[in-house]
Amino acid sequence: RDPRLVGTLQDFDLAVAWMLDNRHEYRALEEAILGVIGSMDKPSSPAGEAKQHFHNRLFGRSHASRELFRQRVLEVGLDDLRRVVETYLKPELASTAVVTSSGQLEATASLREELGMTVQEPECVKTSGRQDRDACRHVYLRAGSSRPSFLSAHR
Fold first, then answer.
1. Distance (Å, rounded) from C-alpha 141 to C-alpha 123?
2. Secondary structure class of 130 (helix, strand, coil)
3. CA atoms of 144 and 2, how far apart (whole Å)
4. N or C: the chain end with fewer CB closer than 10 Å?
């Protein structure tokens, strides 16, 4: 539903360059850190607390590991951000997914061409001995590792 899909994808690539090519104030990072810590520390409803406790136990997150994570978030610096961007957010290694209606294949033809994509349809999935009709309607649009990948699902 993004009317400027190509522009949005370019914005993500430009954000990496912005982070690496500009000088940044610690104040902005501090505000982001406070936002993360605030979301971790905010009170929740009894049901929300129970759900969070369940998921913490399910995924092996002890109170000590959550406190360690909290402490590490507080210690993040601008050099850490730059290192992460340089290591993990290289546009040439990025994979991108966009979910849209399979009825949009014709409408996205020029976009797929612009981004160097091809269309590949997977085999239909069978569940409980019958063919899952929705699984047959998925269309995957993929390109090389330096290009976005699209997932187009019928809904």
1. 14
2. strand
3. 23
4. N
pLDDT at 81: 94
Amino acid at 3: P
Indicate the residue type of 40.
M
> What's phi and psi for 120, nearest 5 deg?
-130, 125
CA distance 106 to 104: 5
Spatial CA neighbour of 121 closest among 102, 94, 96 = 102
Question: Mean pLDDT score of the chain, rounded to an integer?
Answer: 78
Structure tokens at 148: 């976005």
Three-state SS for 55?
A: helix
